[in-house]
Specification:
- With about 350 residues, the chain is α/β, with parallel strands linked by helices.
- It has a single domain, classed as Alpha-Beta Barrel (TIM Barrel), CATH 3.20.20.
- The protein is built from 13 helices and twelve strands.
- The strands form three sheets. It has an eight-stranded parallel β-sheet. Strands 4-5 form a two-stranded antiparallel sheet. Strands 10-11 form a two-stranded antiparallel sheet.
- Helix 3 links the parallel strand 2 and strand 3.
- The two termini are about 30 Å apart.
- It comes from Achromobacter agilis.
- One of its GO terms (molecular function) is pyridoxal 4-dehydrogenase activity.
- It is an enzyme of class 1 (oxidoreductase).
Length: about 350
């Protein structure tokens, strides 16, 4: 089942990375209220991962969704990182992969493993953490992270022989409905699409298709995905927060050139009476290859903003000016192109 078919009617999903205490320690009640707010605003697609707070996001999401009927929502999580019972001390966490992002998450140690056995164990562990009987979509997570350096192709090869094959079998057996890669780089998706033996149903691309960064994805990935009807779920539409009033870009403090770019977009948005969140979400969804967008939220009010942004009417003149000012690529599909 293609991702577009699986997510039909669910163009606005909910990304749960913030529920793993990304950047701040979120009170439990606030986390639960945020998921409840998403549900009340019609969200029926929820994406999570073991990496988010070393299982904390999965645990919290499972608690919140336990009150809902399982057939009424779509659930995706990820494989590629195993959570160990071993606990890291504070100094190890400060130096490790979780530093900065999920320093306030659970202290359990994470290991990268894309093998067949690890994939099966990861899915089983996620089911237990979320207290659910099934996962609809499984993404192979962060297979080409920058911290892998030039070694990412070796991780990809392990996944090709391990996770790819296991997830294909689980889909054929009806255990899961769909699988693909969940990454923040274009290259592994392009490589996967070129593999004759791999038949993924779609991809989750985080941060690489947004108002601030989309040209590489437009070169080859988006056209090929649209041609194959292999839907793209876009994560990070606000570019780690800088497009939603925050200060982060690519999970770090935004550099001066990005801040300047955002200010130019904001100035045009203000001139046309457009909300920056509305522009960010509607730009993403204008691409025919995109099946859904999954902004993250850590407060109920943020979810309400996302839902309102999706419905906001944006004048054609705004999009024309972005294109004229070269703030979006000339070949980027825009909502105005559909009018």
């Amino acid at each position: 089942m293609s991702i577009k078919e699986k997510l039909a009617g669910n163009v606005l999903g909910f990304g749960t990375a913030p529920l793993g205490n990304m950047f701040r320690d979120i009170p439990e009640a606030e986390a639960q209220a945020t998921v409840d707010a998403a549900w009340e605003h019609g969200v029926r697609y929820f994406d999570t991962a073991p990496f988010y707070g070393a299982g904390l996001a999965e645990i919290r999401l499972g608690e919140a969704l336990a009150r809902r009927k399982r057939d009424e929502y779509v659930l995706s999580t990820k494989v590629g990182r195993l959570i160990l019972d071993e606990v890291e001390d504070a100094s190890a966490r400060a130096l490790g992969e979780k530093s900065g992002l999920f320093a306030a998450g659970r202290p359990n140690r994470l290991v990268n493993d894309y093998s067949a056995d690890a994939t099966l164990r990861s899915i089983d562990d996620s089911l237990k953490r979320m207290k659910t009987d099934r996962i609809d979509i499984v993404w192979i997570h962060d297979i080409a992270q920058d911290f892998y350096g030039d070694e990412w192709l070796s991780y990809f090869e392990v996944a090709r022989k391990g996770a790819f094959r296991v997830l294909t079998r689980l889909r054929e057996e009806g255990v899961i409905k769909a699988w693909g890669l969940g990454v923040n780089r274009v290259e592994p998706i392009e490589l996967t699409l070129d593999l004759s033996e791999a038949q993924p149903d779609g991809f989750l691309l985080a941060g690489r298709y947004s108002l601030l960064d989309h040209e590489r994805a437009l070169q080859r990935l988006m056209p090929k995905a649209a041609q194959r009807n292999t839907g793209i779920v876009v994560g990070g539409p606000y570019s780690s927060g800088i497009l939603a009033g925050g200060t982060h870009f690519e999970y770090q403090k935004a550099p001066a050139e990005i801040i300047a770019q955002v200010e130019r977009i904001k100035a045009i948005a203000q001139q046309h009476g457009v909300g920056i969140k509305a522009a960010a979400l509607q730009f993403v969804l204008a691409n025919p290859a995109v099946a859904a967008v999954i902004p993250g939220a850590s407060r109920p009010a943020r979810v309400a903003e996302d839902a309102a942004a999706l419905k906001e009417t944006i004048p054609a003149a705004f999009w024309h000016e972005l294109r004229e000012q070269r703030l979006v690529a000339a070949n980027a599909p825009l909502p105005v192109d559909r009018i």
